[in-house]
Design brief:
The protein is an alpha+beta fold. Helices cover about 40% and strands about 10% of the residues. It has helices at about 20-25, 30-35, 40-55, 65-75, 80-90, 90-115, 155-160, 195-200; strands at about 140-150, 165-175, 180-190. Strands 1-2-3 form a three-stranded antiparallel beta sheet, with helices on one face. A hairpin with a 5-residue loop joins β2 (about 165-175) and β3 (about 180-190). α4 (about 65-75) packs across α6 and α5 (about 80-90) crosses α6 (about 90-115).
Length: about 210
């Protein structure tokens, strides 16, 4: 007779909740950066800024720490709301609501952070002094890139690029210290580069050199 193999019984330990998972990552610097794309102290600082100046607050469904973790995890490593549902053990409706809640706090914060350090451009950047006077009036660099997006079926044609997937045309500017001073998004991929630039140029947040330069 064959003796059946002895197998240890399976041990089912309870899965960490969304808030517990966020807390665990904040105590592990490497895993925190891998999942949120920022160090724990920067996560805590961002949470403090959004809660105290931009309206981020806990709701009946979940607290602000988990909400911010959910948002950064989705944006930082490209997770869908269905993946958010599984990871944080929340309903799809709750994931969508919380994502919008954090996004509404991030947008006005973005307008404060993404701006020139000095709107007057009175000082020539140190890195350009050796090239004077050729770049004395240069205020930064500008470029465009394409970022994949999901759009409504009626808008797919306008957002479909030459590679066959939907994307938006994003324009960004930075200063000579490699700090972003403007990001303009939302333009369909099908748009010509000059249209994208014109749209950004007409945006009041776009960094213009002062008159006379």
């Amino acid at each position: 007779m064959m003796v059946p193999p002895q197998v240890n019984p399976a041990y089912h330990h309870p899965e960490a909740t969304g808030r517990q998972w966020v807390d665990n990552l904040l105590h592990d610097r490497s895993r925190c950066f891998e999942n949120f794309r920022m160090e724990p102290e920067n996560f805590r600082r961002l949470h403090y800024i959004l809660c105290n100046g931009y309206g981020l607050a806990s709701t009946r469904e979940l607290d602000s720490w988990e909400a911010l973790g959910m948002f950064l995890w989705a944006c930082g490593i490209g997770q869908s709301q269905r993946q958010m549902k599984v990871r944080f053990r929340r309903g799809l409706g709750t994931c969508s609501k919380i994502f919008a809640l954090v996004l509404n706090a991030m947008v006005p914060f973005e307008n404060v952070v993404l701006r020139p350090k000095d709107y007057t451009y009175a000082v020539v950047p140190h890195k350009l002094t050796k090239y004077a006077p050729f770049f004395d009036r240069c205020i930064g660099a500008l470029d465009e890139t394409h970022i994949e997006v999901i759009v409504k079926a009626a808008e797919r044609e306008a957002y479909t690029n030459r590679h066959g997937y939907t994307s938006q045309n994003v324009v960004a500017t930075c200063d000579f210290d490699m700090r972003f001073t403007y990001v303009g998004s939302g333009t369909e991929d099908f748009a010509h580069d000059m249209r994208v630039l014109k749209k950004a140029w007409e945006d009041p947040n776009f960094p213009h050199p002062p008159s006379g330069l």
